[in-house]
Design brief:
The structure is a homodimer of 453-residue chains. Chain A has 453 residues and is α/β, with parallel strands linked by helices. Chain A has 14 helices and 17 strands. In chain A, strands 7, 8, 9, 10, 11, 12, 13, 14, 15, 16 and 17 form an eleven-stranded mixed β-sheet that branches. A six-stranded parallel β-sheet of chain A has the order 3-2-1-4-5-6, sandwiched between helices. In chain A, helix 4 packs parallel to helix 5. The longest helix of chain A has 20 residues. In chain A, 51% of the residues are buried. Strand 12 of chain A pairs antiparallel with strand 12 of chain B, so a sheet runs across the interface.
């Protein structure tokens, strides 16, 4: 019988306790899959006293370095969150040849390439499925099941919180703040590692609705999918805080659903990397991904189209993804070869958002002027921007007490470079008949799928 | 530099040629992922002359045993289809400790447990991702990413052909035979290994629409997910040939979408295994899986809900899944430990369809009798079967030339054991006011998802 493999936890909040309870409850099944028993050897936590009843005292320590340096710990599970000391602890564990499992999005998005290089140099497995879209297995399928294909694009709904907010608005007619309130009640923030006090929870909330959280995830995903270094600063990022119910309704009438998208595409040697709300056609599989579900839609040359979708948020799914990575790490440690992939060596240039080509939804508030539709259409025409749809009508869901509902003028353009659209809009904004440009939303129209015969 | 690992192909139809072209086109990337080069050593095909221009003649042989016994072949890729000689060839390759990659659904559904036992005995990897839902990686995620969870249920749309037919009916108003015609044109049958002549294509077509193909897939899936021996004979199987446009339309009005489902559930120590068309709520993620897409929706105790969805049919996705398995096999051969899971040792009893509890859609054709609605509702009541919805109306989509459209009487029941429903229907069939029971369709209503906090 093989000696059990020792596990050390750095940090023991909600996810850590979930990991402990899964390791305990499913010990048999996990041992069978990992090729032998696992044993929890050390737990570093700031609040040792909290665990006195649950855990044998000698396992507990207040010092994370004691875990990393413990010779009986072969797999270090980092659940501290934040950049430091997480980064230094992970790097040191890898240098000692230990396997590291982490759910730390921030540290991977900032220092992933450097940590992967350390891992490769020391033949130490570095696993981070839990850092990306929670329990949805996406890194492994990307790296393994699609190993025979070249990935062309990734469209993702990778922030379940934002998806729950937009679903609440679109389906239940809630406004942004009511939808936000409900999404929080659904408990999706409870899963945020370390977000235990009010200040951190508020920061975590902002990171969601302003798109930063998704940008971190996308940086990690794109790096794995395109085998390139990705800096999180290169991800264009726009939040969902300015979305209005009226826009969602107009989009629906035009056949679209508004989703919080993360997009990575390779084309002509450059990478598009962007996180923003976007309209997608209502027939697209992502359009049906609602509430706290996340999803990643991958297009590859040989594998065709693939979507992975699941409830990515919450403590238990996150803990389950961590345990799956622990099992994988144990298998690799037991095997001779550790299967450590090399860190990406190339850095694909990133296309500036100005040069990105897409379709746009533009909502204007016109003055009470009969010629405005023609004037705006004319301005689009002078800039060579084709119009796919236009509609003018009283504002959807205007407050009942307003005497005259505002008028909305909505356009859907053909594909155009973003810089050109911005220049056209600057001119349109100056037109007499235009009170203000209320909103511009990108429209993501995936190419029709190729019949793979 | 490591010696290249030798590959031998058994059979070289469309998928085999796809495998060859992917191995050639992506050689660099594949070598990087497999930990070293792969080399095609031997190809067995019935028609050696077809390949003279493409392949160096010494690689070709008419004798599959020459491939299995070739000492330079370390990975045997079985693409013959059918039970024999595939089964004997696979078993012999495993006995020699070679890795086997197969896309052969039939042989796995019939002899999977026995072949897995042979693989385990000889430490030989047996990989079959390509046999299940084409390019959708499902076996690996089930076995690895969900390793920490106990799977509770699987709902799948695992026959892209049938899904394309029902989509054509539901979305485009085609009748069954027109939808079938179009689904065939979409080319999904082109991907069927070996279905090169008319007779085999017709047999393959029947296997789809009568549900047998999905039953084979479900047997393999359920065996992997629940770690139990599954006999394909134990899968209850009902085809989609009797579906009418009217039923799809009535279902839609009640809030449901008709899908060709495959269902496996564990409960109270027994397994439900069934393949049949079923109504699912239109909000369910599977309801949006259309056309040639397949999908598998998995519920597990810790991992929550997970859906994998992709275009499972077609030559290129199938070939890409085979190559991904070849890469995995090469990695395992290079590592000391071969990661061969033990064959399932338990055999969970299967619940007879009579004892399965679900909701039902029942469509009746009443005689011209004012009391019939009350009479039928009364009969349901006497059997203790609750009614969730009832409607009576002129037949949807009745031929224009018919003077009097037939009347349809439609019921949606509460959950009831199938045997009890059948007994109630036998009584209802005898009622004076009932001309005939036109159709009974199961309704699959997944439990509301638990907020995973």
């Amino acid at each position: 019988v093989a000696r059990p493999i020792g596990i050390g936890l750095l940090g023991c909040g909600a996810v850590g306790r979930g990991v402990m309870s899964i390791l305990r409850a499913n010990a048999e099944r996990i041992a069978a899959r990992a090729g032998g028993r696992l044993a929890l050897r050390r737990i570093a936590t700031q609040d040792v006293s909290k665990f006195r009843d649950d855990v044998e005292p000698p396992l507990l320590t207040g010092d994370p370095w004691a875990v990393v340096h413990d010779p009986d710990v072969e797999i270090v599970v980092e659940l501290l969150g934040g950049l430091e000391p997480a980064r230094t602890l992970i790097a040191e564990a890898l240098r000692q040849g230990k396997a590291v499992v982490t759910a730390n999005k921030a540290v991977l998005a900032r220092h992933g390439t450097e940590l992967q290089a350390t891992a490769a140099r020391h033949g130490a497995p570095l696993l981070f499925e839990a850092a990306v879209a929670g329990a949805i297995p996406i890194i492994k399928p990307l790296q393994e099941c699609l190993a025979a294909s070249r990935i062309q694009s990734i469209l993702g709904i990778i922030d379940g919180m934002n998806n729950a907010i937009l679903t609440g608005m679109a389906r239940d007619g809630l406004d942004f703040s009511a939808a936000l309130q409900r999404a929080r009640q659904l408990g999706c923030l409870a899963g945020d590692t370390g977000a235990d006090d009010v200040e951190r929870r508020t920061a975590a909330l902002r990171a969601h609705v302003e798109g930063y959280d998704a940008a971190f995830t996308l940086a990690i995903l794109a790096s794995a999918a395109f085998e390139t270094r990705v800096r999180v600063e290169d991800v264009f990022c726009e939040g969902i805080t300015h979305i209005s119910l009226a826009d969602i309704q107009y989009g629906r009438e035009l056949g679209y659903v508004l989703k919080p998208l993360a997009i990575a595409k390779e084309g002509e040697g450059r990478l598009e990397l962007r996180v923003h709300p976007a309209f997608i056609p209502r027939e697209h599989p992502l359009a049906a991904v609602n509430d706290l579900f996340s999803a990643v839609f991958v297009r590859s040359d040989a594998g065709g189209e693939l979507m992975l979708c699941g409830r990515g948020t919450g403590v238990l799914p996150a803990a389950s993804a961590v345990v799956a990575d622990i099992i994988e790490a144990a298998k690799r440690l037991r095997s001779g070869l550790r299967g450590v992939p090399p860190a990406p060596e190339r850095t694909l240039p990133v296309k500036p958002i100005d040069e990105v080509v897409s379709r746009f939804y533009v909502a204007l508030e016109p003055a009470d002027d009969p010629g405005v539709l023609a004037a705006v259409a004319g301005a689009f025409g002078r800039w060579g921007i084709g119009i796919r749809a236009a509609m003018q009508r009283e504002r959807f869901a205007a407050p009942a007490e307003s005497f005259a509902s505002p008028i909305d003028l909505v356009f859907l353009t053909h594909a155009v470079q973003e810089a050109r659209l911005r220049r056209a809009l600057a001119e349109i904004d100056q037109l007499d008949g235009v009170r203000r440009i209320r909103h511009v939303i990108r429209v993501e129209e995936p190419e029709p799928s190729q019949p793979t015969a």
